[in-house]
Amino acid sequence: MTEAARDREAIGEVPNPLGLDGIEFIEYATTRPQALGQVLEMMGFRPVARHRSREVLLYRQGSMNVVINAHVSARPNSVQPTETPVIAAVALRVRDAAAAYQRALSRGAWAVPTHVEVMELNIPAIHGVGASRIYFVDRYRDFSIWDVDFVPIPTVDQRPPALAGLHWFGIVQYIGTDRMDDWTEFYRELFGFAELSDEQRFGILPKGRILQSPCKRFYLQLIEPEPGIVEIEGEESLQRMGLGTPEVPAAVAALTGRGVEFVEGSDVHTDARGAITRNWLGGVMFELVNNLPPEAPSALPPPGGDPGGPAKPDPRRPLAAARSSLDHTIAAPTGD
């Protein structure tokens, strides 16, 4: 297709360039896996499998997978487990992991070198905020990554039901001062996220900017510091995960019965829009958001867009401005 034809028909970029289809798992790194596991169990998750060779546990609830990683990695720039749990990685479901990975690299992403051992899958990843990683997973239906790398815990239900309809809503990311546009461009150019208007808000903590994934199955919330209020300068990170539920009061009641405590104050308190839990282990908290489970997409576009379209002279240029200010946040890739 010629450039003139594209202009005449107003054909733009493919809306879902990587073929995103939701979140496969969120990974925490900590030296206190049992303590974090107890928190997850209060939130309705259940341990269902162990990694074959590493100190890694898989917790599941409905369609949500959470990994607790206590394995000390020898990889440079990796998130090492610390006493305070941190979100070390997020894995995104995609139609074709290899194609999504290559397209992300072509748009300026930085590759994470892989060190695959015997009986382990090679899951492609790029660098995210801080030392975190973003994985691409295309094995999540009949045959999944958990069938290869993990061993089921005997007598445990491998598909524990979701409590009060809980499902992935998204992730909150803390960013540095004056970095909102940089990170918005990062997620837009690499993944196809779209910025929502200020009128489109969710939950009880409406700060920052909301980005909607191109598959419309999850969101990112970018929050920068407020002088004298939110002091997070220099600590850009994935801060917490958001859980959607069709009925917030019912979910709060069910979780309260399991020992979960929620923040209740004059400024922040539970209502029909959402709720936020107390802080555990020095930094772990969860946000509930009134939200219906997303419908499965009817079809996913092939990663990379229209193969017949005109070649771009420099596919990395859209990230040039963002890259200059992201350098101190995204660790540079290293060799094996």
Description:
18% of the residues lie in helices and 25% in strands. With 336 residues, it is α+β, with helices and mostly antiparallel strands. The chain has two domains: 20-152, 2,3-Dihydroxybiphenyl 1,2-Dioxygenase, domain 1; 163-290, 2,3-Dihydroxybiphenyl 1,2-Dioxygenase, domain 1 (Roll). It has an eight-stranded mixed sheet. A seven-stranded mixed sheet has the order 10-11-12-9-13-15-14. A hairpin with a 6-residue loop joins strand 11 (209-212) and strand 12. Helix 5 (180-191) packs across helix 7. The longest helix has 12 residues, at 180-191. The chain is globular and about 50 Å long.
Question: What percent of residues are in strands?
Answer: 25-35%
Query: What is the assigned CATH homologous superfamily of the largest domain?
Result: 2,3-Dihydroxybiphenyl 1,2-Dioxygenase, domain 1
Tally of extended strands?
A: 15
Task: Report the CATH C-level class of the largest domain.
Answer: Alpha Beta
Level-2 CATH architecture of the largest domain: Roll
Biggest sheet overview: 8 strands, mixed
- The protein's oligomeric status is single chain
Q: What's the gyration radius in Å?
A: 20 Å
Ranges with pLDDT <50 over ≥5 residues? 5-12, 297-318, 320-336
Mean pLDDT: 84
Give the termini distance in whole angstroms.
41 Å
In one word, what is the shape? globular
Per CATH, what is the topology of the largest domain? 2,3-Dihydroxybiphenyl 1,2-Dioxygenase, domain 1
Report the structural category.
alpha+beta
